[in-house]
Specification:
The complex is a heterodimer of chains A (about 300) and B (about 180). Chain A contains 2 helices and 14 strands. Chain A has about 300 residues and is mostly beta strands. A 12-stranded antiparallel beta barrel of chain A has the order 2-3-4-5-7-8-9-10-11-12-13-14. A two-stranded antiparallel sheet of chain A has the order 1-6. Chain B has a single domain, classed as Lipocalin (Beta Barrel). The chains are: A mainly beta (about 300), B mainly beta (about 180).
């Protein structure tokens, strides 16, 4: 009896001793000096139609194929918008983890765009706490239509438009990320004299993960300044992200026919309530151009 | 009753009295490699924590999953987001023992075979691991090396059906550490 007790006690103590000795060693690594940065706040550089806070990683290039079909309520004759699509091809390259440059071409007005994304702050926890990630997005558009009869584009400056956004995002959990997007848009030459050259807007966007690879996304931009005309609406887009290895597919519904911000923030004319919306998709493919230094030897 | 007390006191005394010599690193290297028909996946972590107690052979590792660097940044994001879920399970750990610790003379430089067993925790799942490696003792410390395979299924790491059969289900882990004596 006593022998048994001794054995049990000894085994128990030896096990305890092992665990204690291991935990003791583990405690050597406890330090509070580590800072953990939030990653993958959004899967893609676009939330739905507009920009997310994400900047491509250093050395990676993204090819973005964007499509907004015509209005769904155009009916069977136009095959629910299939016959009229606005498309954009874009490339974006991450020079560093916080700076990316981009170039794109949209069918609408044969517009070229050059853009810049700069990550200013990174959300983090641990030693250094930062509640949000902030990215600046700047874009310049150039209309490349031939100079029309009325000499509208006689000056090069008349072809230019600008977008400035400050994208403020927080990843609340792995399932929920939200961002607010104040925008300032400037057109050198507007369609009519009544149209304002400067437009201010405030946007909100977010994603809710439905599974590790699929998420529901939304994006809304509220124009704060004078509306250009009565029939313009605020832009609202709802979509699904599907991620498959090297691609992100984004399928969405939007009341914006246009693809880039200087067009879709002030000039959205679709109305959700009338079914005047567009089916659209983005296909974003990632290419690794420069490998990280750990793999530089290959 | 007296005997029990003596044994207990003895064990406790033994625990306290052995002022162990410890070896530690915070910049160990772990790589993993898997070669599937679709993707060759390789990742490097140069910030591995490891510690060894040369007296009782206790041997532990602590690895931050987000410190693994991949050839493709996108793979790294998928690894953290979809496979090992680093937000939920930020740390992988190994708690084990060098079972033939008495065969290793830490005072005499040379190569020694080490047999290691223990519990490896990845993705919140713990599974026993048994492997052999080499300890190279020199006057500055100990270099440790080992290679072993783990199965993703043992750690509840799911491969989506769309790529199943195209990504290897077994992964080769290579450990390289350079342990230095811990200054008391």
């Amino acid at each position: 009896m006593i022998k048994g007790l001794i054995t049990i006690a000894a085994i128990f103590l030896l096990t305890l001793q092992t665990t204690m000795a291991q935990d003791d060693l583990m405690n050597l690594f406890d330090d509070q000096s580590a800072t953990e940065y939030a990653s993958a706040t959004f899967k893609s550089t676009n939330v739905v139609i507009g920009q997310s806070v994400k900047v491509p990683a250093k050395g990676t290039m993204l090819l973005n194929i964007q499509h907004h079909f015509g209005p769904v309520n155009s009916g069977f004759y136009d095959f629910f918008g299939f016959d009229q699509a606005v498309t954009r091809l874009g490339l974006r390259y991450g020079i560093t983890d916080w700076l990316a440059i981009g170039i794109g071409r949209t069918t609408q007005n044969k517009t070229w765009d050059g853009s810049l994304k700069v990550k200013l702050l990174r959300q983090s926890s641990g030693a250094r706490v930062m509640p949000v990630t902030i990215t600046y997005f700047g874009l310049m558009g150039v209309i490349s239509l031939k100079n029309p009869e009325n000499n509208r584009y006689v000056n090069f400056a008349n072809r230019l438009s600008y977008v400035n956004q400050l994208i403020i995002a927080r990843k609340f959990s792995s399932a929920l990320s939200l961002q607010v997007i104040p925008s300032y848009i400037h057109w050198n030459l507007t369609e009519t004299k009544a149209d304002p050259n400067d437009i201010l807007s405030l946007g909100a966007a977010g994603r809710i993960k439905l599974s590790n690879r699929i998420s529901f996304n939304f994006e809304y931009h509220y124009v704060l300044t004078q509306k250009i005309a009565e029939n313009y609406n605020n832009s609202l887009s709802l979509g699904i992200d599907i991620e498959t290895g090297g691609h992100v597919f984004q399928l969405f519904l939007t009341n914006s026919a246009a693809i880039t911000e200087q067009y879709f923030i002030p000039y959205t004319d679709g109305d959700w309530l009338k079914g005047d919306i567009h089916i659209g998709f983005n296909i974003i493919r990632t290419f690794t151009i420069v490998k990280p230094k750990e793999f530089a030897k290959y | 009753m007296k005997k029990i007390l003596i044994v207990i006191t003895g064990i406790l005394f033994f625990t306290v009295s052995t002022q162990a010599q410890r070896y530690i690193t915070k910049s160990g290297n772990i790589t993993f490699f898997s070669d599937g028909p679709l993707e060759k996946i390789e990742a490097v972590n140069n910030k591995v924590n490891a510690a060894l107690d040369s007296q009782n052979g206790m041997f532990v590792f602590k690895v931050l999953m987000k410190s693994f660097v991949f050839e493709k940044a996108l793979m790294q994001e998928h690894f953290n987001e979809n496979y090992v879920e680093s937000d939920k399970y930020p740390v992988a750990s190994f708690k084990g023992k060098v079972i033939n610790i008495s065969d290793i003379n830490f005072k005499k430089p040379g190569d020694y075979q080490a047999k290691v067993t223990g519990q490896l925790t990845i993705h919140g799942k713990t599974h026993p691991v048994k492997t052999t490696g080499t300890f190279t003792v020199n006057d500055k410390g100990i270099k440790g090396k080992s290679q072993f395979n783990i199965k993703l299924i043992d750690y509840n790491i799911e491969i989506p059906s769309i790529v199943s059969g195209k990504i290897a289900e077994e992964i080769l882990i290579t450990v390289n550490i350079d342990l230095k004596p811990l200054k008391q």
